[in-house]
Amino acid sequence: xxxxxxxxxxxxxxxxxxxxxKKLSIFSMSKVIKPVIRFPLVPELIGRExxxxxxxxxxxxxxxxxxxxxxxxxxxxxxKYEMMGADYPLEGLSAYEQRAPKLQEVLALCRSVASExxxxxxxxxxxxxx
Length: 130
Description:
Layout (H helix, E strand, L loop, with lengths): L2 H8 L4 H14 L7 E6 L7 H12 L6 E6 L4 H8 L16 H13 L5 E3 L9
Parallel strand pairs: 1-2, 2-3
Helix pairs in contact: 3-5
């Protein structure tokens, strides 16, 4: 949620992204669509509970109550970077195990902050999501 941190990690500010999410949420209220906000959980960054709580709070305050879908990190993009001859910026990070306790903690935190919002785990974790 912090624009400076987002810029450090991606080279771009998140201000336009957040504005577009707000617009999509408002637009979706007049249509029969339910937006899903997908949030990647990168191991090096997952310990930032403040950011997770701010993200859950942001999504829960949106018009139309879109779903927050937490995406456990996987390394599937690593081969794509290799094929392109590019360095993979997250090389060496381990993918989350399907039932990683940390994922349960993050899910519980986000659900407690955004109690009126559906918060789910995506990717492989969707197999055990309640």
